[in-house]
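Whether sequence alone determines local backbone shape is best considered at the level of individual chains. The sequence in question and its structure tokens are set out directly beneath this paragraph.

===
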Amino acid sequence: MYAILIYEDNKILRESVCSLLYLADGYQVLGAFSDYLQVEEQVKTFKPDVILMDIDMPTVNGIEAVKRIRAFNRDVQIIMLTVFDDDEHVFKALYCGANGYLLKKYISDKLIDAIKEILRGGAPMSPEIARMIINNMQQQQKAADSYKLTGREKDILLLLSNGNSYKMIGNALDLSMETVRTHAKHIYEKLHVNSQVEAVSKALNERLV
């Protein structure tokens, strides 16, 4: 029996998801909540296998809630359930640690399959989301190629964009700080910028990471 937590502020939809899971074999809804105010305590208490999370919630949004959960739990599987299919929401949720992203219009038909897939180690996505991610990856590759960034430089640029220091990057990639600093210098030269702030801004604006 897999334990599920649900976060959804729309009462009708929240109850519908609960009913859907109740009718399916192998799932137990341990809690269904209308906000994220106590999300850390709830996740620690119930120890769910899967969390179904809405993005657009009052007070604390779903993206911030994912960050809070990932600060202490890297194993629980998180599926975002949302009406949003724009780049900003999708990639912020995935970068923060969501494992899957399902548009609400597909809940009745695809939610159970999405949960099964994520428990098998997959990453369930609505068709539109999968296509968006593919397009974004292709754009990133094209943009990165235009600057002739190496694979290692792309890795370091991504880590810089996520706010990591040279020391943290060195630890993550098993490199000395001096090596990281040298790679960063080459990145700045290729991007025609003079600082980390400028490099990160350009990387984000041009989707290099």
